[in-house]
């Protein structure tokens, strides 16, 4: 069979791309390579693809990045599976327009290659060219067989390949002729090679007998379907075993044909796709492993309880690797392994699960002792000698991080595990081990953070007769962040109450140390006198002595009424003296609902040697609330995106104080925190601390 030499049309490709094709396919027709390279422009390429689609000289068009309208050019080329395919380079300028190509053309006809992956062009062009050539050969074989039958060939008088004539005998694809019962009447050289046929043992033998018993019914149905329709039947891959014991995958494509006497035959095109199938399976396996690795990574880095994340890992492992059971075992303090998370397929019964857990524990213990992976393939016809494990496979991999054995990842299945199982288990085990170790580290860090934060806040707020006192502290982050905000409230020896809320510059353990210094200096100074000038002066000196960063502070001294039952007159007056050291203006909410910021200002602490902090005195009447807060409420997302104290005052004014729980200050604090989280959302990057004092009616 003579065939026209296939071409690769290089349409306005870059010089370096052309060099890649020259290296892959050779130069011109004289090179003896599988295709002729033709350099063309977008304007002239249509001259090289003239003719009726399906009957033209086979070619693949490589459309370079310099073509201004690649989509229009592809449409003009009229790709056809028998003679023309195309591959186009996509750029940022053309990518959005090229998204329509997969909708209009199959991957066998048109493919896109990103500009960053142009090195894949020669290989892609070769794959497309092989597809065009194969389709062309199959079409020619079908047509030749039909012509030969119509010419009057008598099928029953000739043997083997002589029935198919010279053209079909030399065809590059296997061809067989079957009778009405699916028995082989004739074949060509290629079919004889791939299916190991001979005139004595194969003639009149059912084609299905060349395949394993479990595939024969499906193959017979596949051939019968072809006899019921005039168009070529679908391509289906069937696997068989060669005489040398190796496996083989055959693509079987049947089509009904009719001889001159009107008798129907079935022409079968048979192609050995073993290598292709193995490559596809390997790609699918690697893709599945990559997806599994991604699922495990996503689970181990997600938030939520560790037990839930481990269960997601084993569920994904069992599903992706087709195991009956996947388990993560962790070690008890005594070193004994116990299952921490297991996933079973639906067909595994409760009895099976208990049995597998009990019998696999021995193998897990072996892995723990040796710190080495283990693969156990039991005989397919019975239980493992000396063990209660049923037939099947077991694979286990130790979870090791930083040289420490954390646990074991195991798989149990009734089927055989592929040789790559331990490789993918190693990858998963590493991810899980690192995730568990990270979770344990975060747990220790949270415990350390809580231990450091505990002395930075008062263990409880004092009870003030006739008042409601409430405070909240919300650190930024996930519990691992030690903030610089703090508050305190305590009774002084002179009968007054000290309220303080501050913000130390910085974060972490350093800020925690400064916070502790400020709180304890405040308390110690107030034991002698609560006078703001005296107390703030001592705090400033302590910070200057330690050469620490600055601190802002709102300091207030409450002088409760001498008669808690009185609401007016000298005996019922409650006064609050307030001093501010660079802190946001406190808010006062009146009994009638009006709310205003208080003009209280003063210099930061820890910066200057000499300080002057003016003191503002406020009379707190029944139904009124005084609020102190840190700058997280006004600058939670940074100084460039801020709210003013007037905004918070408006929020307080709109807040309803009507409630029968007797905790107006607590409701104010909750409302401010809720509003801050709602306002800043994910932009919040600072701690929040608020202290509110309400005089009850």
Automatic annotation (TrEMBL):
SUPFAM superfamilies assigned to the protein according to its UniProt record, in alphabetical order: GAF domain-like (SSF55781), PP2C-like (SSF81606), PYP-like sensor domain (PAS domain) (SSF55785)
CDD domains, from UniProt?
PAS (cd00130)
Q: Does the keyword Hydrolase apply?
A: yes
Does the record carry Metal-binding as a key word?
Answer: no
- Keyword line: Hydrolase
Domain PAS intervals: 160-230
Q: Name one Pfam family in it.
A: SpoIIE
**Which InterPro entries does the protein's record reference?**
Bact_Sigma-Reg (IPR052016), GAF (IPR003018), GAF-like_dom_sf (IPR029016), PAS (IPR000014), PAS-like_dom_sf (IPR035965), PAS_fold (IPR013767), PPM-type-like_dom_sf (IPR036457), PPM-type_phosphatase-like_dom (IPR001932)
Which NCBIfam families does this UniProt record tie to the protein? sensory_box (TIGR00229)
Q: What is this protein called?
A: SpoIIE family protein phosphatase
Provide the organism lineage as a comma list.
Bacteria, Bacillati, Actinomycetota, Actinomycetes, Kitasatosporales
């Amino acid at each position: 069979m003579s065939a026209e030499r296939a071409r690769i049309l290089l349409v306005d490709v870059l010089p370096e791309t052309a060099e890649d094709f020259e290296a892959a396919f050779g130069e011109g027709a004289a090179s003896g390579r599988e295709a002729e390279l033709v350099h063309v422009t977008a304007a002239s390429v249509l001259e090289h693809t003239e003719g009726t689609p399906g009957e033209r000289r086979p070619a693949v068009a490589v459309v370079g990045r310099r073509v201004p309208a690649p989509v229009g050019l592809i449409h003009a080329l009229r790709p056809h599976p028998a003679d023309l395919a195309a591959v186009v380079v996509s750029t940022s300028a053309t990518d959005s327009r090229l998204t329509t190509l997969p909708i209009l053309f199959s991957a066998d006809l048109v493919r896109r290659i990103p500009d960053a992956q142009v090195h894949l062009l020669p290989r892609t062009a070769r794959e497309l060219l092989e597809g065009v050539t194969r389709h062309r050969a199959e079409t020619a074989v079908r047509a030749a067989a039909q012509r030969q039958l119509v010419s009057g060939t008598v099928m029953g008088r000739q043997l083997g390949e002589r029935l198919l004539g010279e053209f079909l005998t030399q065809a590059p694809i296997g061809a067989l002729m079957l009778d009405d019962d699916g028995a082989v009447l004739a074949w060509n050289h290629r079919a004889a090679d791939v299916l190991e046929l001979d005139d004595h043992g194969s003639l009149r033998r059912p084609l299905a007998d060349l395949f394993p018993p479990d595939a024969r019914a499906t193959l017979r149905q596949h051939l019968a379907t072809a006899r019921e329709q005039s168009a070529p039947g679908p391509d289906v891959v069937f696997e068989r075993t060669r005489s040398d014991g190796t496996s083989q995958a055959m693509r079987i494509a049947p089509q009904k044909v009719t001889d001159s006497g009107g008798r129907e035959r079935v022409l079968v095109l048979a192609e050995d796709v073993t290598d292709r199938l193995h490559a596809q399976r390997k790609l699918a396996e690697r893709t599945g492993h990559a997806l599994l690795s991604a699922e495990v990574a996503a689970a181990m880095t997600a938030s939520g309880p560790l037990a839930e994340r481990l269960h997601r890992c084993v569920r994904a492992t069992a599903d992706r690797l087709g195991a009956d059971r996947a388990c993560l075992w962790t070690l008890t303090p005594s070193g004994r392994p116990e299952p921490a998370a297991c996933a079973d397929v639906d067909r595994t019964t409760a009895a099976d699960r208990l049995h597998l857990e009990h019998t696999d524990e021995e193998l897990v213990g072996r892995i723990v002792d040796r710190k080495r992976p283990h693969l156990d393939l039991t005989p397919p016809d019975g239980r493992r000698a000396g063990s209660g494990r049923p037939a099947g496979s077991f694979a286990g991999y130790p979870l090791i991080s930083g040289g420490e054995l954390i646990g074991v990842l195991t798989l149990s299945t009734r089927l055989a595990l592929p040789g790559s199982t331990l490789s993918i288990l190693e990858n998963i085990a590493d991810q899980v081990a690192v995730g568990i170790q990270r979770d344990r580290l975060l747990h220790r860090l949270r415990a350390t953070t809580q231990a450091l934060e505990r002395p930075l806040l008062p263990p409880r707020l004092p009870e003030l007769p006739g008042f409601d006192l409430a405070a909240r502290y919300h650190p930024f982050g996930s519990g691992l962040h030690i903030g610089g905000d703090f508050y305190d409230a305590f009774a002084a020896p002179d009968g007054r109450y000290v309220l303080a809320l501050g913000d130390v510059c910085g974060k972490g353990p350093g800020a925690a140390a400064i916070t502790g210094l400020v709180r304890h200096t405040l308390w110690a100074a107030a034991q002698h006198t609560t006078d703001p000038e005296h107390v703030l002066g001592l705090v400033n000196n302590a910070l200057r002595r330690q050469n620490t960063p600055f601190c802002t502070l709102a300091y207030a001294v409450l002088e409760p009424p001498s008669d808690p039952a009185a609401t007016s007159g000298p005996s019922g007056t409650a006064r609050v003296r307030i001093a501010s050291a660079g802190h946001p203006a406190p808010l006062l909410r009146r009994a009638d609902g009006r709310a205003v910021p208080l003009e209280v200002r003063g210099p930061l602490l820890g910066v200057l040697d000499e300080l002057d902090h003016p003191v503002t005195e406020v009379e707190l009447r029944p139904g009124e609330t005084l609020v102190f807060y840190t700058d997280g409420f006004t600058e939670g997302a940074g100084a460039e995106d801020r709210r003013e104290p007037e905004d918070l005052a408006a929020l307080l004014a709109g807040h309803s104080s009507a409630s029968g729980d007797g905790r107006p200050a607590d409701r104010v604090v909750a409302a401010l925190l809720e509003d801050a989280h709602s306002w800043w959302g994910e932009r919040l990057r600072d701690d929040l601390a608020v202290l509110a004092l309400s005089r009850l009616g």
